[in-house]
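Here is one chain, start to finish.
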Amino acid sequence: MGFETKHRKRDLEIPKHRQILLNTIEQDLLSDENIIAVFYGGSIGNHNTDLYSDIDLRIVVKDEVFEEYRLNKKQRAKKWGKVLFFEDFPWATYSIAHFDTFIKVDTFYFKMKDIQPSVWLQNIKIVHDTNGLVNDVLERSMRLSYKPNVEEIEFWRSKFFAYVHEAYRRTMRKEVYYALHCLDNLRISMVTAWYMEAGIQPNTFGDWAKIEGQRSKLQGWQLSLLADWHSSREPYEILNVINSIVPEFIKVHNSLCEKYEIEENPEKVNEILDMVL
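Its structure:
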């Protein structure tokens, strides 16, 4: 990692405690007759866990007990170990529990009808599937590929323009944190575009998971650009970084328009960007 912290010894123990937690979770869930299926997504589903990987747990329950299980989600998590705190909303269908072993468990509850083929379900680990539902969905998911539609690309470029304009406004108002927030959204907008160009399902907007680091799907030059698009709180630097992002935006925007037969309209693009740059 290049540096050490006082928690290094604890961190090295995380994989052991994660396996203990997984065993406890499965002992609890697999004996429950109301649970139809249990599977993992995320790093466990992808078989590429590291020291700090979460447990992305998915539970399919019978329709008639779904609301009961949703309401009891926090009590259920407490059966698996010592929970330090939760960060989810009471009305949500998921629970995010942080355990005293520095492991986070994201638990999502589903009804049977919620499990549909998706590119998101191509990398999962199934540990319980009483009626074959999840295995069937996995097989059908593997036949899918991601292709952005016109609406996605239109929304992407519109939001890019909006964040460029808003970053300028906030910089001029000396609302620096807001301006930096817009700059961060411009960076992740570029990642979204790179993913779309490569036929990779983008993360939910704002989610930086696996964008950097050893599990990144980006090429080296893309990671280098992201690192270069860094700014201090100085207003001139914020605007300079935005200026340095624009050429790559123009390039990938052109590529997406050609690939998916969308009108590029470069004159309009320049008009929009020239308002602030």
